[in-house]
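User: Hello! My lab partner asked me to get a predicted holo structure for this protein. The small molecule is calcium ion, SMILES included with the sequence. Please write out the C-alpha cells.
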Amino acid sequence: MLYRLQSFVFFLALLFVYSCGDDSNEPEPLRDYAVQTADDDEALREYLQTHFYNYEDFQSQPNAALDIVLDTISGDNSDKTPMLDQVMSRVITLEDSEGVESEHTLYYLIVRQGSQARPSVVDSTFVTYKGQLLTGSVFDERRYPIWFDLPQLVRGFREGITELRAGTYTVDASGDFEFQNFGQALLFIPSPLGYFNNGSSGIPAYSPLIFQTKLYTINVTDHDRDGINSIDEDVDGDGNPLNDDTDEDNLANMYDVDDDNDGVYTFDEYDEDGDGIPDDTDGDGIPDYLDPDN
Ligand SMILES: [Ca+2]
Ligand SMILES: [Ca+2]
Ligand SMILES: [Ca+2]
Ligand SMILES: [Ca+2]
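Assistant: Hello! Below are the C-alpha cells for the protein in complex with calcium ion.
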C-alpha cells in the first residue's frame, strides 16, 4: 500500500514537470492587434469614466509646480469630473507582421499646454515621467529630468508627447536650471501602442498603460547628421519617419547616411548649390539624394 502511494505521488510530480515544460516551450500565440485594442479601449474608457485628477489644484494654483494625482470618483469625490470628459484622442494605425492594418485610440489629457515648440515623434525630449497600470501599480518613475530619444520609446508615449509644448528656463548663479511654463499631460495607452506581449516584472503582457509626464525642453534631432532633420526624412508624409527606407536596405532614411545607396552621402548631394531647395539635377521630381540615377 505504501509503495503504491509513493508511485502515485511520483506520477503526479512527473505530470506537473511535463506540464511546466510544455508551457514554456509553447508560448501563447500573439494576440490580434484589433481584438486586443478593443479590449484595452473598453478598460481605458472604464478607468477614465471612474477616475479624476486633481484639476482643482491646477486651477487654483496656476503657477505652482504640481504633480498630477489620480483618484477614484466615489464618496467625498462623487461630484468630480471624470477624465473621460476631459481627454482628447487620436487614432494611430499599426501594421502587423502580415501587413494587416489596425487602428488604435490613444487618449491624452493636457493638464498644462506649455509655451514653446512641440517636439516631433523623432526628436529628443527632456522629461520627467511616471508610468502606472490601470490598477494604480507604478512600474517606473523618474522625478529628475532625463533626455529621451523618442524613437526609442513605446509608440503611445512618442505620439502623445508631441501634443505638448516645451517650457522656458532660467539658469541661476550656481548653474542650476529652473523650468517654467512647460507642458504637462496624462497619456492613456492601449497595449498595442505600449509593450503589447512583452511583459516584464512590473508590467504584465497586454497591459494598457498610463503615463504622466512633464516636457521641459526639446532638441530637434538629425540622427544620421546628414543635414536633414529626422522628422524631414518622412518621405511618404505619414508622420512617421521610421517607416521610410528609400533604398530598402532596412535602415530608415533618418538613420541612413546614403538614402538612395548611390555611393554619394546624402549630406553631399542634398543641396549642393545651397539655395535651400533639394537639388534635382535630372528634373524628374525626385531629389538627387533619393534618386539613385543622380
Ligand atoms: Ca538626417
Ligand atoms: Ca513615413
Ligand atoms: Ca535606407
Ligand atoms: Ca546618395
